[in-house]
Specification:
4 helices
């Protein structure tokens, strides 16, 4: 038995290394299957990046519409329209306290 193994030692070691390299080529951390999975993840992340960039541009566009000077009358009109706060015929009275 040892004589057969001794005679075919190089053949056994060579076969083992070939199987090992083929296995790692296909299934290792840097193998072909891992490569395909990583390519898929990269494509998904690039699509997500494009989507997020579009959202950022949209928010920047909306942010540019906001000015430093606030029009309180316009905001009051928006609040009345959106939240049904008061009616058109309502009269607004401002009461000032002159005690001071």
């Amino acid at each position: 038995m040892f004589k057969i193994i001794k005679n075919n030692y190089l053949l056994l070691v060579g076969t083992f290394f070939i199987i090992y390299f083929i296995f790692n080529l296909l299934d290792g951390d840097r193998g072909f299957i891992s490569y395909i999975n990583k390519k898929k993840v990269i494509n998904e992340l690039s699509l997500k990046e494009i989507e997020l960039n579009n959202q950022v541009e949209n928010l920047e566009r909306k942010n540019s519409l906001i000015t430093d000077k606030i029009d309180l009358d316009f905001i009051e009109t928006l609040i009345r329209d959106k939240f049904m706060y008061g009616k058109e015929e309502d009269k607004v009275y401002i009461i000032k306290n002159n005690d001071s």
